[in-house]
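Task: complex structure prediction.
Instruction: return structure tokens for all chains below.
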Amino acid sequence: MIKVRIPTPLRTLTEGQGEVDLEGKSIAALIDTLESTYPGMKERLCDEQGALRRFVNIYINEEDIRFHQGLETPVEEGDEVSIIPAIAGG
Amino acid sequence: MSKIKGLVCKECKSEYPAKAIHVCEFCFGPLEVAYNYDVIQTQISKEKIQQGPISLWRYVDLLPIESTPTVGLNTGFTPMVHSKNLGKKLGLDYLYIKNDSVNSPTLSFKDRVVAVALTRAKELGFDTVACASTGNLANSVSANAAEANFKCFVFIPSDLESGKILGNLVYKPNVVAVEGNYDDVNRLCSEIAGEYPWAFVNINIRPYYSEGSKTLAFETAEALDWQAPDHVVVPIASGSLLTKIYKGFQEFERLGLISGVKTRIHGAQAEGCSPVAAAFKRKSDFLQPVKPNTIAKSLAIGNPADGYYAIKIAEETGSIIESVTDPEIIEGIKLLAENEGIFTETAGGVTVATLKKLVNQGVFKKGESVVVYITGNGLKTQESIAPAVGSPWLIQPNLKSFQHILEKEKK
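Output:
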């Protein structure tokens, strides 16, 4: 199982849960699993072309997936994934 | 009727109440304060501003608070210096330095955003404030929280300059040094912000906080006798400051306080962390995040949230986003100090070095006005410049020893 942390704005879809355990071989597959378990999730995270929305950041074990293979980044048993809205600096 | 309508998503325009939230639930776009400009129009005037407090609060009609200001009452209204020496050296007759390195209370432009953020946090009923910071923001949150009686948590990368770490500790907030870079700190803080009912100034208070930066544009226009300059040069970390300086001039024009705004808003980054400049040069609005490696730690955001908007504004206003190397940054710091007597931190070095680069590219025409924003103080980042400034003459306490060294060292 892979632990996925859900940001506050999406917790209305997960009945308030901040963490969910899911199966999947890649980030894209995890998003599909999320969508089938919690409908409405995918359109929040991805645009009409299926690409990650501009202001959504996804991290695998604390590393931005854009440093790996984006949505195609593979995930393994025990990995932790965080979905986080982009935030401004200081 | 209130001047604040609520919050609105910058992307999909969904509307929200003016609470401590920062992300659109539908598209994850950033939320911004929506104003009733018709209401503001009836309240604001040049005369009223001029008779207002000698601080950023003279522009309160365009800031997102509902009652009276309670934090940062001495913040802003920093010197705007007509540069003679540096201007002459660079061939610019109308070069102005907006000197936020002497802002109150903590010597950086972040005092502006924090004054607004903490006043708003108090209005919204918070008792604890927090931030993720590259240094200056944490310093300002710590100091202002002490004065305004907030509990305070500041999160910083563990490798910050010692002056910036001490500049938190002295105010006795909870200082959390995170083993990672700013982007790691920011990501962690987003998760912490979801778990604790705190006012994170750059996260759930961001729609209000970021508006404080507009006052740099307001003060600039007022100091130029109610005109916008032809050019400004702005350092880019997250990109937020650049977008808000643009917005400030736009708002003043919309309300009839200035007219004919054609300001070009140039951006400055350090080459060791230049995702915005790189995307601008590629003519792309897709930002590839980077792992920062530069002495300009206050600008070291590898994943800048407002970079996309900064690029849009640069394109729209025919401006340029450039990057400069670490040696150029050091030279920029020295150039400003030796010519104008202003000691800025590395971010200011980035801005001055970029100004010089734009001069060499022929961006500025004769007679045009140029404003550079010096956003932080050199005393906070001494280790970056120390190897480049030499050492004092060492003598014995007698006249002969002085005369001897004077002959030897005289320049």
